[in-house]
Sequence to fold (384 residues):
Amino acid sequence: MGQAQRLVGDRQAALHTLRQTIALGQRLGHYLPTLEALGYLALLLYQQGKLREAIRSCEQAACQFMDAHGHPLPVAGFIYVPLGMLYYEINDLPRAAYHLTTGIALCQQMGTVYATLAGQRTLLKLHAAQGELEAAWEVLAAARELAERSENQRRIRTVTAMRAELQLRQGHTAAAAATLSALPAAAAARSEQENLTSARLLLAQDQPQAAAALLQQIEGFARQQGREGSLIAIYLLQTLAQQALQQPEAARAYLEQALCLAAPEGYRRPFLDEGTAIVALLPRSQHLAPAFVAGLLEGFSKQAHGTPAAVASAARKQLLLEPLSETQRTILRLVADGLSNRNIAARLAITEGTTKWHLNQIYGKLSVGSRTQAVAQARQLNLI
Fold:
């Protein structure tokens, strides 16, 4: 019922129903539906502007579902994926990468398509933010294969929007327009992700008036459903649209609305992901949230003066705060020797699924997206 309410846009009812599900599941000791409901609840809380509550709820649950060796149980994937998404929003990229790759691997073990796709979407954005475009395209390919195998049109459309987002990040406006051409024409018939991507396309096509009109529509949808977290991204795009329309006061008003919503809860990536177009506007509004804006400006400065490789390298070094286990080091050495997953599993007397799980753990800890990148990074850091 909570899922149905969420999908038809009755988010307040969905929040209430999912909280009831969690309470009932905890009382009865049924952890699979409890954690699945908590994962959905966390994403709804994020959209409602309650980022800190969402992170706290997931962190409390995640530590309860470990095996005897300290590894997360498969059901923890329902928590690790949203937790990775939430860490990304506060710009904690190392922890986001670890939880996303771990959560995706766990959800794949359970055959959970929705959570896997949600994690892949944020992992794609994370790779793109770190300048790792090859890894981002690899994630997109995996997501497309999963969505098409499910034969679910809503999931296939999610991947379509992901592809257009990545194309726009690389400046391929015509390709993004072709990708989005199959979407419904009416904003009400599209998802929030599809509408935001469509607005970004209009801005890239130098159609700020059309972008502003679309954003006004989806702002109305978000206000009606109380989605203050979603309003942050909408207001930032309106800032860019008004700036392009040479309406500086309107642009400043939208930016300040975004800051007032974002600063108390720590939503940072919506600003950083919009790039340098936002930078020049921030100092005039710094009085609203001095420390928060100073942090954003510092983040922009690092992105501007550090090469993608340097940003990625710094993130990887931070990831090593979560060290590789001895088994993971052994698997890395065998990967470097050219062994397949099946041969590694036979050599270590473990299943091929366990081998894949360890590899995804390794990818997360090193912030890489492939076997080749993992070996190269491990050698650079003298891990093998």
About this structure: The first helix runs from residue 2 to 7.
